[in-house]
Amino acid sequence: MSIRPVVKIVNGVPASDGDGVRLTRMLGTAEAQMFDPFLMLDCFDNDQASDYMGGFPDHPHRGFETVTYMLEGRMRHRDNTGREGIIGPGGIQWMRAGRGIVHSEMPEQSEGRMRGFQLWVNLAPRRAARPARSAAERWMPSISTSRCPPGRGSRSPSAATATPWSRSMRARSAWRAARSTR
After folding, report:
1. Which residue, 30, 41, 84, 149, could crosslink 78 as a Cys pair with Cβ 3.0–4.6 Å?
2. How far apart are the first and last CA of the chain?
């Protein structure tokens, strides 16, 4: 495997989305558009309820998949396929918009910190033509990331620290690589 050099470091851009939720847009800005299939990466880190209480009321999506990971706080996801659930700390939720879906993501708290990120991934045309679906919310092992406060901009990519899960995945990959060379 060859190591590729870092071509460019891009600062996140302060943004507001949904009903006034303050966030930092890491990908999907004028300066960071060259990451296909990744369309957008938003990081939100707010400890003031007024910065997130409006949430993301009903809105449509089509042709891509979203992955939402919550580090702190609680968000309720609801969509027109009838699926609904709460994403809490360590929770992750996948949603394939496919041919189209209308959904909302609303805070399940009225105070405290709300921190996480959402990645939008472009779907191949054959997958974009499939019906929409959203996976059940799941708990994932802890991921530590660099802080991305709104309004200050953050550097992308975020540096993740090793967790027991990431160490075990690296060990498993190394074991498989060593085994395949025999």
Report:
1. 84
2. 17
